[in-house]
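Teaching note: in complex prediction, the entire set of molecules is handled at once rather than each chain in isolation. The prompt given to students was simply: 'Predict the structure of this complex.' The entities are:
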Amino acid sequence: MVDLLVLSFSTIFISNFVLARFLGICPFLGVSRKLETSLGMGFAVTFVMTMASVITYGVQKLLVLYNVEFLRTISFILVIAVLVQFVEMIIKKASPVLYRALGIYLPLITTNCAVMGVAIINVDEGYSFIQTLVNGFSAGLSFILAIVLFAGLRERMEFAPLPKAMKGFPIALIIAGLISMAFLGFSNFNLQALFGL
Amino acid sequence: MPREQLRLVVVLALICAVSGGILALVNRVTEPRIKEQAEQAVKRSLAFCLPGADEFQEEHVIPVSQQADKEVLAVFRGISDGVPAGVVVNVEVRGYGGEVGLMVGITEEGRVAGIKVLNHAETPGLGSKITGEKFLEQQAFREAGLDYSPALTQDGGDVQAVAGATISSRAVVRGINRALEAAGAVWETIFIDSARRPEESSQLDEGGDREQ
Amino acid sequence: MKLRQVFANGIFRENPIFRLVLGMCPVLAVSVTVVNGLGMGLAATFVLVCSNLIISLLRNVIPKEVRIPCFIVVVATFVTIVDKVMAAGVPELHGVLGIFIPLIVVNCIILGRAEAFASRNTVGRSLFDGLGMGLGFTLGLILLSIFRELLGTGCLLVAGDFGFSGLEVFSESYGALLLILPPGAFITLGLLLAGINWWSGKKGEER
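The expected output is the structure of the full assembly:
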């Protein structure tokens, strides 16, 4: 149980998917202009990541069984594409407002490197089923954390006096860099001491 | 519109089938080379850690999953002209940023012959310096052996840590100590057994128990 | 648009990194050394060109409703090919680029061009679009990597696979370590982007 907590903590803070691993940057930069949309996107992504982790765990087992591991990239991305279609339908039914707010960014979750990334990481690290589940979910949480922090700051930036060249993505990237620097502090964590291992 | 839908499925299925076929082909061509690369890399590391040995045999040890701390990945017996010349141990210990994989060669005199950092996730520019000659080829490591466990100066020993990367350095020291332990556990079986039965590989389960 | 213009478009006017701001994940992650940036750029260009070609060839065959899954399969096939070939040919580079090689399949540039260009244009034009975009991507990557590697470590062109340990321009102890760490990626790209915006703003004013 504790090692699952350690895994989760690591994924959310120490190797944050966006700020340390550079996964999920496109939506991170693209959707973070408004806080509510960011949160909605974060939830959608977390859901997809968790489901994708679970399903690709099974797919990997199948691939190994039939000795066709070279089909991993194709099969994983197809699973994710189907999953995103599915989530799109759910959101359209459940919350049309959110659906409209997310707009084109919803189908773009398919191309979110973080989703495909976590699926591959789970396999490469040889995680068990429960570890895969925890890692997938935590990866989603790490995305939410990063994007919400970022969106909060970006909303402020809208009103800041900036040189024209800096407006938009340049200043956004620099802010992201500063947040990433803050998160670097987490890598000093003595997890053993914190969790009493 | 079943006809239209059939077309959708057929086109997609065809594309998938063709892709699958192409990939199977590519895989067939590249896989042997990939395996070979991996084997070459291991051989190079083994030879680096125990210069003088021309052949290596993997020893049976307790599988990683059954070890308490899951640190000893493999133990190799180094052979020179048919006679055991030493041991190389592949360990993996927890560092600052992740796992640090080490290979440690130990000569038949029980002295550390060579250390190689196989993989690590330490901070670039700081902890990553544990792979450097300045750290790994220091005097304190050369003197380390079965009878002399190395330790950082911070921990009462002689090993100079990489400046600003105590945790990474400590991980390497721990790895070397672990390797020495593992080597010690199989020492008798390799050197004494082979005096009696030079061709057979040893039954090491008893020796391995001591690692826990 | 003439073919030459299609090609140049990908490098300048619609440069994927600096103008379209697409495919950022590998850009930030891989730009630690110039060789890594070059390797990733070439790999992505190969996938982009090949998939643009095939998708353009098949553009009248693929039904609109399933076009995205079809595009994905085509792209994923080429990505897997690049992955295997690199693992066999340049294992050290392959290890360093790691997860970002299979992640080429979700590089927004590739699927983006497939949808926006290759599925609506002839094979020839799609080829040049792929080449231009790929080159623009690679050049952008190299530019960013030069800043990060040179100012971060003092060395350039460290290339393990080819046994070349780089040109040391100045001693590593003068390097700004932050640049090769994650925050450095964000900040360097941000400043570079600002610089390019400023420069093209000035060019616009002069007219």
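Point out the following to students. The first strand of chain C starts at residue 155 and ends at 159. DSSP finds eight helices and two strands in chain C.
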